[in-house]
Specification:
Blueprint lengths: L16 H9 L6 E4 L1 H15 L3 E5 L6 H10 L2 E4 L2 H9 L7 E3 L6 H9 L4 E4 L2 H10 L4 E5 L19 H13 L3 E6 L13 H16 L6 E3 L15 H16 L4 E4 L3 H4 L3 E11 L8 E5 L18 E4 L6 E7 L8 E11 L7 E5 L20 E4 L1
Parallel strand pairs: 1-16, 2-3, 2-9, 3-4, 5-6, 6-7, 7-8, 8-9, 11-13
Antiparallel strand pairs: 1-10, 10-11, 10-15, 12-15, 13-14
Helix pairs in contact: 2-3, 2-9, 7-8, 8-9
Length: about 400
């Protein structure tokens, strides 16, 4: 069955013709993510143009496909890695150790030692014990302290689990120095899918106070890691990547002044719009004759790549060959026997009333946080397949 992807009139961020042609020309016997690596390169260039002197450290966790990493290495990108496995992928594709930061604040001592032996010198921390582990297993390493972001307007906030408050951060800078480490700055994350650049302002206002307090107490900070938050298009308006990045940098400069080294860690904003998932309808049903909404079950669900439908925070865009038919609301769910495998119920999705078992469904802008969230074999369903073109 041929399913034409939407043209440029459908959104500001159309699927690339190359990706569209590949999807339409091929059959897929299981849910498959198709990534257009050329589109990743286009997005990298657009973000780089807006970020100016800031260094891009691609968040590998968004999509660690080797083809994506290899292209970004060729473009001169740096990388934010959360594990030994991600560091190994980057090194295997030609990245230098000095292009990689170990950005997870929760690390195994053995992995810290391995990374240090491999040449990694930049580590994140947000607690005393983490600094102690780094000092023991990566003596003399450079560290930055992650600040907690308590004010976030992101669709997917990252508060609570990561970071520490300003007073703790200042103390950790002193403690890192006592341990023989080199504390060089701070990091933070405003939250994933921060759709408008101005949404950064309240967080930056609070974080800048800690930055200036640290400098006032004698810490010669040289690094500010502004993290991710760069958005992708999921149906709600976002700014174009270059304009967005330029506006964020302006907000940062207004509050922090000149910072010798700024790191940005786009993940979603780099790869989401480069990918489309090809799946199919398994069942369309109603629970009773009184049921207001159909249930549409897909061959992919929350455990096979669509984990970010948790809380319905990320609203994926769906396309079918029947989109010209009358539309109606439906509850969407995955194929597993877990009752939590429901994608959209609080705000039902509009899909064709004629939709039926076997119809191909395309899920657009799914290049980020899908393959990495896919379970190995829950219920015996295979993990999300990935094809890079």
């Amino acid at each position: 069955m041929t399913v034409l992807l939407a043209d440029a009139a459908a959104s500001r961020f159309p699927v690339s013709p190359r990706l569209s042609a590949y999807v339409n020309a091929n059959a897929f016997d299981r849910p498959t993510l198709v990534i257009d690596v050329d589109r990743v390169e286009t997005q990298y260039a657009a973000l780089k143009a807006g970020l100016g002197h800031a260094d891009i450290h691609y968040a590998v966790k968004a999509n660690p496909a080797r083809e994506v990493i290899a292209r970004l290495v060729a473009l001169g990108s740096n990388f934010d890695a959360a594990s030994r496995g991600e560091i190994e992928i980057c090194l295997s594709q030609g990245a230098r150790p000095d292009q990689i930061s170990f950005g997870n604040t929760i690390k195994r001592p053995v992995d810290i030692a391995w990374a240090h032996a491999a040449g990694i010198r930049l580590f994140a921390a947000d607690a005393d014990e983490e600094l102690e582990k780094i000092a023991e297993h990566a003596p003399g390493a450079q560290v930055y302290i992650r600040l907690i972001v308590e004010i976030s307007q992101a669709d997917w906030p990252l508060t609570r689990k990561f970071g520490c408050d300003g007073d703790t951060a200042l103390r950790l800078l002193d403690y890192a120095r006592e341990l023989g480490l080199e504390p060089i700055g701070f990091s933070f994350h405003v939250g994933s899918q921060t759709r408008i650049a101005d949404m950064w302002a309240p967080s930056l206002d609070a974080l800048a106070e800690t930055w200036h307090a640290a400098r006032a107490t004698g810490h010669d900070l040289t690094l500010l890691n502004i993290g991710g938050g760069f958005p992708a298009f999921y149906g709600e308006a976002i700014e174009a990547p270059t304009d967005y990045a330029r506006a964020v940098m302006a907000l940062v400069t207004e509050r922090f002044g000149h910072v010798p080294r700024i790191m940005a860690e786009p993940g979603r904003g780099m790869v989401a719009e480069a990918g489309v998932i090809v799946t199919e309808v398994l069942l369309v049903s109603r629970k009773s004759e009184r049921d207001m909404h159909r249930w549409v079950y897909l061959s992919i669900g929350r455990f096979s790549g669509l984990a970010e439908t948790e809380g319905e925070a990320i609203r994926y865009q769906f396309e079918t060959a029947r989109d010209g038919d009358p539309m109606g609301p439906c509850i969407m769910a995955g194929p597993s026997c877990d009752s939590a495998d429901v994608l959209y119920e609080k705000r039902p999705m509009q899909l064709p009333l004629t939709l039926q078992c076997g119809d191909r469904v395309l899920i657009r802008n799914t290049g980020a946080y899908t393959s990495t969230y896919s379970s190995v074999c829950f219920n015996g369903f295979p993990p999300l397949d990935v094809v890079c073109i």
